[in-house]
Amino acid sequence: MGKGATTSGILNNYVIAAAVSAAAVGTVLAAFAAMPARAQSGQPITVGVITELSGPYSFFGTACRQGVEFAEKKIAAEGGVLGRPLNFKIVDDQTNPAQAVAAARSLDVQDNVLAVTGPTSSDIALAVYGYAEQNKVPFVVPVAAFAQLTKPGTHYTFRVEPDAVGWGYAAAKFIAAQKPGAKLALMYNDIALARAIVAGIKYQAPKENISIVSDILFPQGSNDATVQAAQVVAAKPDYVYLATVGAFDVTATNQLLDLGIKPEQIIHNVGTTSTLLGYGARSIGSIYGSFFDANLDNVTAEGHQFVDEYTQAVGRIPSYVENFCYNTPYIVKAAIEKAGSADREKFRDAMSALNMVEPTSGVPISFDKNGARKEYMYYMQLTGVAPPKSYTAKKLFYIEWAPETLPVYDLVK
Amino acid sequence: MRRLLHTAFKPQLFLLLAAGLLLTIVVRENRFFAFVAGITMISIMWAAGMNLLTGYAGLVSLAFAGIAGISAYTTVGLVMRLGWSFWLAMPVAALGAAAVGVLLGLPSLRLKGFYFALSSLVIQTVLSLGFVYFVNLTNGDTGISQIPPPDIPFTGAVLRGTSFDLLLTFAAWFSLVAVWAIVHSPFGRRLIAIREDEVLAEAIGIDVVRNKMLVFFVGSLFAGVGGALYATYVGFASPRSFDLLSSLSIWLMVAFGGRGTLMGPVVGALILAPVPFLLQQYDTLKDVIYGALIIAVIVLLPGGIYGALVSFARSLPLLRRLSTPYKKSVPHDRSVHGA
Amino acid sequence: MMSSAALLVAISVITTGLVLGVIFSLVAAGVTIVYGSIWLPNASNGQFFLTAALICWSFATWLAMPIWAAALLTLLVSLPISYLLEATLIRRFYDVPDRNIAYFVVTLGVTQILSGIFSVTYGRWSDQFNLPPVVSGITFIGPFPMTNNRIFVLAAASVLLALLFVMLRFHPYGRALRAVFQNREAAALRGVNVRAIYRLSFALGMLSIFAGGILYGMAYSFDLTVAWTMAVTAFAIMIVGGPGSVLGAVVVGMVFGFTQAAVSIFANPTVATFSYLAAMLVILLIKPSGLFAR
Question: For residues A271 and A319, is the Cβ–Cβ distance under 8 A?
Fold first, then answer.
């Protein structure tokens, strides 16, 4: 290789260097010329959506995009906000933090968006968080459960999904309510979300008189849990709490069932429609955490409409991910109306003072001074599956708590 | 050192510096393009280091990004936890990362040719797992947010905006100067001899493993300095920033541009580094285009883009006439590009 | 006398080690056959492994085919894919001296294209995929309940590995293939059609990788991330076993499978992963050309 260069003279190096530089500068100048004009009043209000349309999180990013697009259409049909259209500009972050930061920058600088929203993965959200806080861009996080997104001192970031340490707290409360003095086994992947949940469980379990009899951490990319399932069986727990991800979640569930753990003993951290269907009929009776479920009684008329339209378009019922992403544009809309303008500072203040309910479920939405939402969680029991479209489930437990109830920012750094 | 100074004043390197600075200044108003340009400058630096390993010493190191990651996390740790100045933390971290790189690479440095690449792939996997596993040091896969930009020593101010961009441009340029100087030194010639024929190199008295270790250390320094700059420039570090795919994309910049030439990796980085940022709207096709581009270059332009550019330039009558008289006066240039 | 809990764990280690081991071995054998003959380090082996599982899943789910028919058809599909790749990309480098680098780049390009396609198609559709079991029911091995489906996967993979060995050892093609492995110039002089052997070994390697992917999909749920995990595992097995050695691939593949299953009793699974990758580096230090290199 490089044979062509072997005999090249020094001037060729010159010429190439000059050509390369000229091309680079030219490209950038051309890009400048194509830059859009800055938004003026009367024009649409644009909100940036940075989400994972490719890479390992493309499933969640795509689900989120669908939720946002449904709401965007409905808001447009209802006449926009302040008499102006509310547009959502969707950008792929490739499940890569650097790309997400670049996207935030691009939306901030090029499109002059009012706010950004979108990432479904905690590390991506945290990367955007750094940019948003530093550059004073309001950031509404629909589905990333990492507590540090609303650590003390946070000013521009608002977390719509309850934080993961709290999920663990809710799990301990739920288990204590189901069976006092229960013995619990933990199986989880080495990911930030799962570590935060487990930190919450371990904090709350002693207070609820729950003993943890097995604690198994799997590296990312694990594929078999048979041996660990055998160890869990040997420890004779009352419940097994699973915070495993992706396909391994389904594999681990099936291997627990193979070894004689009953579905009623299995608690999944959360359930999306595709994973609940993936567990299959043999896991009917198992329990999962949730924040929205089409089977809940409190789903509003608008919620049912969303569920029906979504099911028709996508082929399966929406889960909490799509629901958060559907509600987020409404949260943004409510805050713009409250602010009375599309000014970033006024929007931020309005978000901070917001007091509304989720259009789809009537669950209250308000944020504390750090942008953390009033937390809540459901525990549901799977009662039937109808692949590939839907499943049925019933509510076992509901809990609300204030973000300050447990020291989340000390438990997870 | 004298060689380095001498090299720095090579006219074409000067021209490159001028172009880099011009680019940085032209894009400074638009912070998005400035950011893409900044990342590209870091990529040039990484590609230059990778080129030293791959192009001149024949070592395809797929643990490159992992080593950059060690340096990035160390720098961030020293600055954010111990309050060190960036300018003290960065060299310490880069040297440390390069040393760790050599330690990990030691078994595989004895391997010939391609087995080295394969085992470096495994080392990268170990490092990626480590970044996730050692939560206390790296904050796991959540990553570390709000990394402060470098301080300006003795002033209490920090380096941000265009001045940071200019620093990156100088860093990228300096790494090219360093590669040029190394390649022209006796050490560089030993490396090329090893790349061409290890057995022969050994036969004429070159200590192959020792020279490989040395170049691996130097190449890893490029990775380390780039990693420290990357984390502070993006303001965020997570295992995903320093994974196997990152190593591969740096390596692709070198192969794509033309390895074993000074300018090839620059061309590769200039083309490939901005692509993912500029194609953010085309999520469906992006990876397919990227992959097809790679295949097309290897099949159609085996010398890389730069090799093709050079042959094209030489085919233009005007340039041929201009360049001919210079050819005889710089015979040593052959050894630089010797393939 | 072992307690029943200890026995349960012990048998689970053995069965898990066997199932993982045979699948690892099949894929690594596919990779090592191709590298040993053509010098093609197939960076896209993980993507093709995933391709096989996804094709089989599509046949079973969308075309509602019985799983065994879907699996056989998927194996057949690998042949035109291999042919197409060989004719368009692989063949043109047969005479390039340091072609392993060129091949590595090309297969990385293929990896990029395939992962790009999968992440915006299957990846958006679901975050996990399951094949229906080939056989249902559970068989007790002592206190340990093993699904018949996993027993089937274990048996099928073992039969395929045995067939591969028999073919390499006794069939004329296999003998020619091994001659090329050892010395292609000498083989050419003895009248072996080296290019035909290249083509055959590429197809055979891909078939092996496809079989591994299908069987993996039968034994486990899978998602798109399995491609990289498997690619790295297969490469690691090939390095330790000695590139070009099918015996090495199988022995080391089994060792990897058992290590992964067993170490997690003593340490957490992450530490287990570290330890066997570290073991690999140590083996390289002691015997750089791999354990079973000729």
Answer: yes
